[in-house]
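Many introductory courses stop at the sequence. We go one step further.
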Amino acid sequence: MKHSIWSAVCVAIGISIAGLFVFLGLVKNADKDRFVTVKGLSTRTVEADHAIWPLCFSLTGNDLQSLYSESERVSQEIRTMLKARGFRDEDLQVGNITVENKWDNYTYGVRPEYKYQLNASVIVSTDSVMLVVRNNGCASELLNRGIIVNTSEWQLEYQYNGLPELKPEMIEEATKNARAVAQKFANDAECNLGSIVRASQGQFSVESDPFQPWLKHVRVVTTVDYKLD
């Protein structure tokens, strides 16, 4: 009888100890799971540091040699005007020349007057972005010289290449902003803000201003989990 009672006591003690370990484990896990997820934002507005501006033109005729000669004359005229407006020789490039034979394919049985259409361009590629901005409306001057160029906005590209230098300070700022949000949450919850549990950096986005496309809006969002004590 005494042996049975002792066995029962041992079993009860074992169950109690096991229950204690389970309780402590749950408390530990509960503490471990106490964290807050916050986001931090950092933005910058910067000017583009490079511009690519193609000035495209087309010529029509029936003699290819004459068209090539005229293309060289027009290209030189465009270059002369651009240099007079402050662009350097190294800013100016002659684009590819393509030729279409209009007599190969035509509709309604009506052959075009001119057999060939030559498409060419002078391309401005420069770090003098504001010079491009100021001269973007120069097509009217060329028109007065009898030269029709296509300078559509969608062809003009403003680039920003300074993102690698900008990233560290923006990530730091976004992380600080995330911590400020987490600290406010911890204060409201009457608890202490602990260390970072995990953090992830979002993708940097660079978007052109819709009204001033040489201005670029840079944005990044970081997501951070902080432990709550």
